[in-house]
Amino acid sequence: xxxxxxxxxxxxxxTHSLIEIRVWHVPNPVPPSRHNLKxxxxxxxxxxxxxxxxxxxxxxxxxxxxxxxxxxxxxSIEKLLAHFKADVEAIRGEKI
Length: 96
Description:
Blueprint: E1 4-14, E2 17-25, E3 37-45, E4 48-56, E5 60-65, E6 68-71, H1 77-92
Antiparallel strand pairs: 1-2, 2-3, 3-4, 4-5, 5-6
């Protein structure tokens, strides 16, 4: 079984910023993650990543917040989306 794209959303927020979310179901976890999802969520302003969540092979689940990268404890896709949205809203100072 190959990876199956579950979600792909790209939202242009204004002339300088966008959000793109991709979530795949994968047959095997992406090491060192323990779940069967591969994801990438990004908020871009002026062609620069400001917020990002992903689970890159070798790094596992992690978060990019401005210039800082930290590990992220994945519990569910719903919580991940909520955390991503909250980070974007905090940076933007408004609801998305």
